[in-house]
Amino acid sequence: MKRTIIITGGAGFIGSHVVRLFVNKYPEYNIINLDKLTYAGNLENLKDIEDKPNYSFVRMDICDFQSIFELMKEKNVDGIIHLAAESHVDRSIKDPFTFAQTNVMGTLSLLQAAKIYWESLPEKYDGKLFYHISTDEVYGALNMTHPEGIKPPFTTTASSQTHHLAYGEKFFTEDLKYQPHSPYSASKASSDHFVRAFHDTYGMPTIVTNCSNNYGPYQFPEKLIPLFINNIRNRKPLPVYGKGENVRDWLYVEDHARAIDTIFHKGTVADTYNIGGFNEWKNIDIIKVVINTVDRLLGRKEGEDMDLITYVTDRAGHDLRYAIDSTKLQRELGWEPSLQFEEGIEKTVQWYLDHQEWMDRVTSGDYAKYYDEMYKNR
Ligand code: NAD
Ligand code: DAU
């Protein structure tokens, strides 16, 4: 079936993997990457697909309701996969207004443009979908009742990974009430509520998914894993917040993109799906794995960079533990994480070491010039 889909935030970390997957897998679809290109947007993430006939890029702000409406009308858009957001918790602590503007008002502008356009069509909402990508952080934080870790009560094909522990018996399930703590998660929670309100009030077909921490290629090096890989390579200190005891649940980014593909095509309208790989790690443990992996792949003695670990003041309001229960998605739609964590982290470290030029252009700011160079004659 021919479809025209806007993917917002397609120049960011997860968005670029989603755009790549859809452009390559569905040549019959028209994929429009709509992105404002903030500091986190990098078109160099999509060099390999930018000339494909079913791909186009539009530089636009999701807060610009009128332009989005015109674009939807001009291109006859029938699907939106919405990833554009301000995504870094530390930035939200310093500048909450930007997060409310982009994540709340931007999502509302997109919803309103889609509503007015789709309701103007003879078939109205038939065959349409607004798919909103959210985060597990909206559920707040879980307790750590088993500081040494227990065997979790779940199995996945990737569950043979050697480290497979849960740090409490409770998990984030889809029916939990929202309890966001950071300005970032509060803004994402608010946007999730608006998406559901547009279904309940106007009948717009919507889906919301809440995913755990992603890792993999093309992540902006303000986030833990790429920041630390780059610092280890350059023998710079590794700022570990607090005691490094906080727990995050890590999923390889391509597995998230595959889940989005599955849910976009097979998910139930008005439903919510949690996405995660049952892969909890204490920060300090994952940091040690990253140090050992970087050292080994650079031909250094494994562990020789452990002394780069530097404990620093904790993040304000730092959520203790995130852990996603994704059994609903596995049971109902048959999605499973494909990679064992050991495999995923090895691939990720190798990718960053092999793409030093990408990292250098991001850290120097040169990547921001790519849009002007590439698109000036188009
Ligand atoms: P990112 O920060 O890497 O990318 C965000 C993208 O959105 C960038 O390309 C940026 O230019 C674009 N953008 C920002 N403001 C915009 C605006 N006003 N208009 C248009 N484009 C704008 O983010 P990410 O880590 O790839 O996250 C993508 C989505 O997934 C976000 O909604 C985030 O909340 C969610 N999420 C992320 C994770 C994670 O671990 N990274 C986990 C779960 C959910
Ligand atoms: O859970 C999903 C969320 O994961 C997404 O919604 C967010 O967009 C994404 O940024 C991520 O949020 P986190 O705050 O968990 O990711 P971050 O990489 O910033 O931090 C991971 C953990 O590492 C967290 O406990 C804080 C800690 N940390 C982070 C940095 C950047 C450090 O100890 N030192 C650091 O320098």
How would you sum up this structure, described in words?
The protein has 378 residues and is α/β, with parallel strands linked by helices. The protein has twelve helices and twelve strands. The strands form three sheets. A seven-stranded parallel sheet has the order 3-2-1-4-5-6-10, sandwiched between helices. The protein has a three-stranded mixed sheet with strand order 7-9-11. Strands 8-12 form a two-stranded parallel ribbon. Helix 1 (13-25) links the parallel strand 1 (4-8) and strand 2 (30-35). Helix 4 runs parallel beside helix 5 (183-202) and helix 6 crosses helix 8 (283-297). The model has no long low-confidence stretch (mean pLDDT 95). Bound molecules: nicotinamide-adenine-dinucleotide (NAD) and 2'deoxy-thymidine-5'-diphospho-alpha-D-glucose.
CATH architecture: 3-Layer(aba) Sandwich
Gross morphology is globular
Q: H/E element string?
A: EHEEHEHHEHEEHEEHEEHEHHHH
What low-confidence regions span 5 or more consecutive residues with pLDDT below 50?
none
The CATH topology annotation reads as Rossmann fold
Number of E-type strands:
12
Name of the level-1 CATH class = Alpha Beta
Helical fraction: 25-40%
What percent of residues are in strands?
15-25%
What small ligands are held by the chains?
A: nicotinamide-adenine-dinucleotide, 2'deoxy-thymidine-5'-diphospho-alpha-D-glucose
Distance between the termini: 28 Å
User: How would you state the average pLDDT, rounded?
Assistant: 95
Query: Largest beta sheet: what is the strand line-up?
Result: 3-2-1-4-5-6-10
Category by helix and strand content: alpha/beta
Radius of gyration in whole Å, from Cα? 20 Å
How many helices? The count is 12
By CATH, the superfamily comes out as: NAD(P)-binding Rossmann-like Domain
Number of domains: 1
Biggest beta sheet attributes: 7 strands, parallel
